[in-house]
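Bench notes, afternoon.
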Amino acid sequence: MTLTELANFVTTKLSDTDTDSVTVCKSFINRRYQMIWDTGLWTESMGVVTQEVAAGATDISLSDDPSIFFYQSSSDIGSERKLDFPVALKFTEDGKTDGLNMLNDSWMTFFQIDPNAWEDVTSRRANPTNFINLPKDSSGNCRLKPVPVPKTAGNVFVLGKLNWVVLGDDDTPALNGVDNALLAFAEGDMLERARQYSKAQIKYQEAAAQVQIMKDLENGQRQSISRIIPYTYNDYDFHGSVGDFGPKN
C-alpha cells in the first residue's frame, strides 16, 4: 500500500476524511515508519558501499552511493540514500582478492591494547582488522577509523544500515509486513488526536503485536537456515510404524 492508500484506509475507518485529517494521518504514518525502521537491521534496510582507501589513511569517509536492493519507489533512488552506520566491513589490499574482516569495538579498548596503533605510529601500520565509528562529516557521510592504519592502499567493502527516507504520497514502505503495523499505529495516533486514549491503547497493543510478527517473519522465515533431520530408530519393532522422517500417521 502507498502512503496515500494507508492514510485513506485509516481515515475512512474512523469516518474522519477531511483534508487536514488525511494530512495529519500521513505524518503519523511516516513517524511510525521511521520508528519501526530504526528498531532493527531489517533486510530491506541494508545496503553496501565499496570505498577506496589510501595508504596511511587515519579515517575513511563513506562518500560513495550505496547499492540498494529494496526500493519504496523510484524516488528512493538518488542522493537521499546514505549509510546510517556500518555494520560489517572487509578490507582488501590493492592487487589482491582475499580480504580481512574488520571488527568493531570501542575507542577505549583499542587505545588500551595498543596506543601506538591508535596514534598512527608508522611501524604499527598494517592491513586493518578493526574499526571504530566516528561522527558523520558535514555531508552526512559515515566516517570510520581503521585500526591499525593501513600500510598499503586498498578498498573497504561495507555492509551498513541505510538512513530512513520519508515516504512520498505514492511511495510504498519497503519493510516486509509493515503495512498492518503502520495501520494500527496510525489509527491509535488518530484516536489519541481525538482524545480517545483508551481506544488508542488497544490499537497500540495491536501494533506492537504486528511488529513482533514482522520480527518473526524476518528471523523465522528469511534469516534462518532450514534443515531436514532424518528420524532415527534402533528398534526393528517400530519399523512398520515409523517413517524416515518421523512417526507415520
